[in-house]
C-alpha cells in the first residue's frame, strides 16, 4: 500500500512567484492576455460604436478580464498563492470560463466588423473593428491555451 507523504507532495511542480512567473508556461501567458485584451477594448472604444449591445458586451468582457487577469498576475508576482494546489484549480477555472466569454465576445466583434463595412466613416471603423476582432480571437486563443496547459504540467 502506497503512502502519501512529503515525498509525494514534493513531486508536484511549484507555482511560480516573482519574476519566475514570466518564465513559466502557462503563467507567462497572463501578460500577453492582458496586453491583447487591452488592445481589444482600446480599438472598440476608438470606433463609433454602431451596435452598442454587441460591442458593449465586447467591452465588458475585455475590460473585466483585463482587470481580473491583472489582479491574478499581481497575486502570482507577490506570492499570495503560497504554492497551494487550489490556485491551480482557480487559475484553470478562471481561464476556462474567460475563454468561453471571450469567444462569444470575439464572434460578436466579428459580426460588428461585418456590419461596419458599409456604415458611416466605413473605412476607418472597418479597419479598427477588424483589428479588434483579430485581437479578440488572439486573446481567446491565449486564454484557451492557458486553461488547458495547466492540465499538462
Automatic annotation (TrEMBL):
Taxonomic source organism: Rhadina sibilatrix
Domain of life according to the entry: Eukaryota
UniProt name for this protein: MALL protein
GO cellular component, one term: membrane
Any one GO molecular function term: structural constituent of myelin sheath
Residue stretches spanning the membrane: 27-51, 57-80, 92-112, 132-152
Keyword field: Membrane, Transmembrane, Transmembrane helix
All residue ranges annotated as the MARVEL domain in the record: 21-153
Subcellular location field: Membrane
Bilayer topology: Multi-pass membrane protein
GO biological process, one term: myelination
Record Pfam families: MARVEL
Amino acid at each position: 500500500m502506497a503512502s502519501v507523504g512529503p515525498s509525494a507532495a514534493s513531486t508536484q511542480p511549484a507555482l511560480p512567484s516573482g519574476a519566475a512567473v514570466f518564465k513559466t508556461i502557462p503563467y507567462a501567458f497572463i501578460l500577453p492576455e492582458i496586453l491583447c485584451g487591452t488592445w481589444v477594448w482600446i480599438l472598440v472604444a476608438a470606433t463609433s460604436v454602431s451596435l452598442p449591445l454587441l460591442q458593449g458586451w465586447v467591452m465588458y468582457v475585455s475590460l473585466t478580464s483585463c482587470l481580473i487577469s491583472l489582479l491574478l498576475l499581481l497575486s502570482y508576482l507577490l506570492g499570495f498563492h503560497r504554492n497551494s494546489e487550489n490556485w491551480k484549480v482557480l487559475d484553470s477555472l478562471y481561464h476556462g470560463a474567460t475563454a468561453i466569454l471571450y469567444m462569444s465576445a470575439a464572434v460578436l466583434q466579428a459580426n460588428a466588423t461585418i456590419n461596419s463595412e458599409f456604415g458611416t466613416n466605413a473605412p476607418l471603423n472597418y479597419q479598427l473593428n477588424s483589428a479588434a476582432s483579430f485581437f479578440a480571437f488572439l486573446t481567446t486563443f491565449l486564454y484557451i491555451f492557458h486553461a488547458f496547459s495547466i492540465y499538462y504540467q
